[in-house]
Design a protein that fits this description.
The structure is a single chain. The protein is of the alpha/beta class. It has a domain at 334-423. The protein contains 20 helices and 21 strands. The strands form 9 sheets. Strands 8-14-16-15 form a 4-stranded mixed beta sheet. A 3-stranded antiparallel beta sheet has the order 13-20-19. A two-stranded antiparallel sheet has the order 1-2. A hairpin with a 2-residue loop joins strand 5 and strand 6. Helix 1 (38-54) packs across helix 2, helix 4 packs across helix 19 (591-604) and helix 11 (372-385) crosses helix 12. The radius of gyration is 34 Å and the shape is globular. This is [histone H3]-lysine(27) N-trimethyltransferase.
Length: 691
């Protein structure tokens, strides 16, 4: 059965000589349900009967199975709680010392607040409301606290100086404080970078605002119903039979135990009946999505030392890529300059190089010479670099800190990897090594341009990875999506649609003379060299003016209460027209997920959604940065948002449209539709309310 609310978590033991009281868990309150008395078993059955009778599932639920399911789940919860308590007890969490003052009727003064913390945690676990001690109700209330002051007196005993300690109690008034007044600001988690979030076709809870908004839109032809937006259902409409904190591990354990008791039941039947008893974990389609994600994530928790990685062509990382994009299928090929072929083939890397024939002849191959880590790295780097033992050996020694000779790497490749696919290198001629001029490049991509002469930067950039020319006939993704090639693409430098960066002077990249700026790209770190991209600041004070997003060089911004609505963002320094202010960061979600979240946000009159490209939005509601506080103004904005391409990824930057003085509030036009404007109040000033 569920635990009663009057359970005492702690009971006192006998007092020790040092006047301390030890408190520990009352184990009688945590007995498994199946070991309870017959009366408790009857209570469970009656509880299940009453619960199902009052619910809408009475006609479809399997009563006998549900009774057994409740008992099994309660037993799992008790075992899980005992295990958790055992771990905490081993760490002496529950051995709490409490000092006793015998002069005041043995009133206990808690030296350690773990007792109160544990009681609070228990109340939360059973759903009881608790008082928030962080909010002070009384303003400027003074009080006295007793503290122990120490005074040292020196006395003489038989000619020796002895220091005695004399204690004295004094009263010190507390410092006056002001009452904390909540400003209804929404909590969020600060993120330093955008990150991809999977779609969630179900909703975790329902608030009254969403229900009213949904009822109002039932007769509207333009709005979808709540059930249409969330095809997998909505959680939180009904209360559970017992309030419990479910985790994927507990649910999976319950399925396993119930499958043994009821072998004729399928997993879907078991899950469905659990949803009848515990609606908060459902509906069934949503629960299956959660469990499937949990099963997929499980292998990722294992040691990945021996995992073979693919290099991301955008950020050039083997692991830890944050581009939120899939890596190209297949092994990308590489290029080698014609002049370097003979040098690499004839120059040994060391005295143990495979190019020295005596090393290869005298070595007899042994599997024991290769640790699992070294063997895995040889295979990984062979795929990445190709048949280049010198390069593979150098990488293993430098980054894996393992010892291996070059000739041993060559022997391993010769024995095990000869038939495996690896990176293929093509020899470039002098003509192929030379990038095409910008004017010729711009002419070649004329068919990609929009009517205003700009490139469609809202399409997702997928770098090409194929042999041959970049064309529709060759199934080049760049040509098919009508976007330019860049240094992450596998095409040669002289590709007709490959952008080779700018050749601007330092400080000129923020003008229309910069090719990168015209295309809506930030300067490329691999190709834009003359603009001083690779240095923060030159001696003459000039540096690249078109790389602030990837450098994360934002202006100083202060967050404080806004006269428009809620909190606002204010300039902490003077900002000139055209200067970069800050990047808008948050969760990267699909358009379908944005539509679902948008309906919820519209009902709550609060939205942080921003269009990123043709397929994605950024949502800064739960995760974001200071840019989420910039308020809306349709008639007096001082900054504007612009989608920029940074190393092939879409990023949103905010730029000043006029000179902004220190202390001015930052405002930009949200471009509300007429439907959205109905939900927002127009201020009597020249500014519009924010979300």
């Amino acid at each position: 059965m569920g635990r009663q609310k009057n359970i005492k978590l702690f009971e006192k033991k006998s007092m020790s000589k040092n006047n301390n009281i030890e408190c520990e868990i009352d184990k009688s309150n945590h007995l498994p349900l199946l070991s309870s008395s017959t009366q408790n078993t009857i209570d469970v059955e009656s509880k299940v009967h009453r619960y199902l009778k009052e619910s809408e599932f009475a006609s479809v639920a399997d009563f006998s199975f549900c009774c057994a399911a409740v008992k099994v789940m309660e037993q799992i919860f008790d075992a899980h709680e005992k295990e958790s308590l055992s771990i905490l007890k081993n760490k002496n969490i529950f051995k709490i010392s409490q000092k006793v003052d015998h002069g005041n009727d043995c009133e206990e003064v808690h030296v350690n607040k773990t007792v109160e913390w544990k009681k609070m945690d228990y109340k939360l676990s059973i759903g009881e409301a608790i008082k928030c001690f962080n909010i002070i109700e009384d303003e400027n209330k003074l009080g006295n606290c007793s503290i122990l002051m120490q005074k040292f007196d020196t006395i003489k005993d038989n000619g020796k100086s002895i220091v005695s300690e004399v204690s004295k109690v004094v009263n010190v008034p507390t410092v006056p404080y002001n009452n904390f007044i909540p400003n209804e600001s929404k909590s969020y988690i600060t993120t330093s970078e955008n990150f991809k979030t999977e779609d969630k076709p179900y909703y975790d809870y329902v608030c009254n605002a969403i229900i009213k908004e949904n009822e109002a839109s039932i007769n509207s032809k333009d709005e979808e119903k709540l059930e249409d937006l969330f095809p997998e259902g909505v959680r939180g409409k009904e209360d559970d039979i017992f309030e419990r904190k479910f985790t994927p591990e507990i649910i999976m354990k319950g399925i396993e135990n119930l499958s043994e008791l009821f072998p004729e039941k399928s997993h879907d039947d078991i899950l469905q009946n659990l949803v009848y008893l515990y609606p908060s974990i459902g509906p069934l389609p949503a629960l299956k999505i959660d469990l499937k994600s949990y099963e997929i994530e499980m292998p990722k928790k294992t040691n990945n030392v021996f995992e073979i990685f693919n290099m991301c062509p955008r950020c050039q990382l083997l692991s830890g890529c944050n581009c939120n994009r899939p890596t190209p299928k297949g092994i990308p090929h590489g290029y080698i300059h014609e002049s370097k072929v003979k040098i690499e083939d004839s120059r040994p890397c060391s005295k143990v190089c495979c190019l020295i024939q005596s090393n290869m002849k005298r070595y007899n191959f042994k599997d024991n010479d290769y640790t699992p880590l070294v063997a895995s790295k040889i295979r990984e780097l062979y795929i990445l670099f190709g048949n280049k033992p010198c390069l593979i050996t150098n990488d293993i020694i430098e980054f894996s800190k393992a010892k291996i000779e070059c000739f041993k790497v060559a022997k391993y490749v010769e024995k095990y990897l000869q038939d495996e696919a690896c990176k293929e290198y093509f020899v470039l001629t002098r003509e192929q090594e030379t990038p095409i001029p910008y004017k010729r490049f711009y002419k070649n991509i004329s068919t990609y341009l929009k009517e205003d002469g700009t490139v469609n930067n809202l399409v997702i950039y997928n770098p090409c990875c194929h042999t041959g020319v970049c064309s529709i006939e060759n199934n080049c993704p760049c040509a098919l999506d009508k976007h330019i090639c860049w240094d992450a693409c596998a095409c040669p430098p002289n590709c007709k649609s490959k952008f080779s960066g700018c050749h601007c002077k330092a400080g000129d990249c923020s003008t229309t003379r910069c090719p990168c700026f015209i295309l809506g790209w930030e300067c490329l770190p691999m190709t834009c060299v003359s603009c001083s991209f690779d240095s923060v600041k030159k001696k003459d004070g000039k540096s690249c003016q078109n790389s602030f997003i990837q450098r994360n060089l934002s202006k100083n911004i202060h967050i404080k209460q806004s006269p428009i609505a809620g909190n606002g963002a204010f300039a902490g320094e003077s900002i000139l027209k055209g200067e970069f202010i800050i990047e808008y960061k948050g969760e990267v979600i699909s358009n379908e997920e944005a539509e679902r979240r948008g309906r919820i946000c519209d009902a709550k009159k609060s939205s942080y959604l921003f269009v990123l490209n043709e397929e994605e939005h950024i949502d800064a509601l739960n995760y974001g940065n200071s840019a989420r506080f910039i308020n809306h103004s349709s008639d007096n904005p001082n900054c504007a948002a612009k989608v920029m391409i940074v190393n092939g990824n879409h990023r949103i930057g905010l730029y000043a449209t006029k000179n902004i003085s220190k202390g001015d509030e930052l405002l930009f036009d949200y471009r509300y539709t007429n439907q959205h404007k109905k939900g927002f109040i127009e201020k009597p000033t020249n500014k519009t309310a924010s979300t």
